[in-house]
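User: Please predict the structure of the protein below. I'd like the answer in structure-token form so I can feed it into my own downstream comparison script.

Assistant: Understood. Taking the following sequence of 59 residues as input:
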Amino acid sequence: MLKSILSLEGAVELSENEQKMISGGNAPVCNPGSFAKRCNEFGTVPYYWDCVPDGTKAC
């Protein structure tokens, strides 16, 4: 499907920075098998982004 989308006239592949902007501003681009999650430590620090393994509910 991606090939057919990219073959559209004027379509371009997004850069890593453009993908980050879409997925959550300053969210990291994580390795396969993990995803970006907003975490905090029970109110002691402000929320921050972290890459956590797929299926993880807590940071």
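That's the full token string. The beta strands are 34-39, 48-53.
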